[in-house]
Amino acid sequence: MDQSGERRSSNAQRGFRVQAPLVDSVSCYCKVDAGLKTVAGARKFVPGSKLCIQPDINPNAHRGKNSRKERTRFQPPLLPGLPDDLALACLIRVPRVEHRKLRLVCKRWHRLLAGNFFYSLRKSLGMAEEWVYVIKRDRDGRISWHAYDPTYHLWQPLPPIPGEYSEALGFGCAVLSGCHLYLFGGKDDLKGSMRRVIYYSARTNKWHRAPDMLRKRHCFGSCVINNCLYVAGGECEGIQRTLRSAEVLDPNKNRWSFISDMSTGMLPFIGVVHDGMWFLKGRGSHREVMSEAYSPETNTWTPISDGMVAGWRNPCISMNGQLYALDCPDGCKLKVYDRSTDSWNKFIDSKLHLGSSRALEAAALVPLNGKLWIIRNNMSISIVDVSSPDKQVESNPHIWENIAGRGHFRTLVTNLWSSIAGRSGWKSHILHCQVLQV
Q: Which residues have a Cβ under 8 Å from the Cβ of 123 and sit 6 or more positions away?
């Protein structure tokens, strides 16, 4: 025992109270000795609120943690000369096209734009922007994707699609929570049918993993109802038969679960959510045309009326309570389903048809800013205002608008060339098209 220990022991034997050195309460990191069961007991042993019970403890033991707190307390403002609340009010008004540059300014801005608070605030104040995301199979068979900014009419760069989906076939695509784009299932040349699920966050501009599906499948149908992802049907390599099974992903629970099977196996090629139900049209195991509708409320599949199935072509979409489908290859004529007559009898025609080549074929219908957007394989875009569908185009020419997207063919020569390319087997085409909000 050293001399200081001997002095403390002798003082204790003589009845003197042991006085620990006074320390600053901020600098004291000690814990009450295990023998002192209560704080009151500790105060009896060590009088005074700023006394260190264990004076031999290393005062630098937690300095790193405390330093981080101090740095957070005195961190620089978001914008010099402005309180953070005013600076945030300025930053949320910066157009989305500039957000990639904002992340590079400093670490604090990067953390701000990578979190949910910034974008939730933009959405609550009506400042969120919607972009069109197009997933395309190029002529070499590889998957690429592009984002279109409708405000500035610009195509934006995106991080590469993960390798497992760079050449996949028959995979699904859907959007959850408005800003997460999911890719799931599909078929790989080496692995065959897949259960894999990944998603891209438009807020972080990164890809993430999600729970795998319960069944391997490709060429299936998918939809989103009440922010839950549903898949049904398709094929599974090795089984060599069409699937009846269906399942759902609840992002809140972060897991998949089975739902009721379809009446028979199906390879869906058209699907749409309308009036809270999921309508599917596809081919059965003997190549016959089949159709069924799923109700999430009752977890049941029911037949679809013949009138709807007969005139139902892809792509189609439900918007403002109306069901729309294209009536020509280039998408310059729309038709509307009339439930009362069980027929497709209303039309919106641009009177300016572009052609029937594969390059000019309409691949997707998406709702954006209260209008229908028609995206073609050559990445050209037409916008249709369906708020007044009964008005004729001649009396209101602003119903139909063509904008120049990437690869938009404007001249007679380029239109002719695209027609030749379509007949010669040009295989570049759009697989999926979705709208993400940030």
A: 178, 437
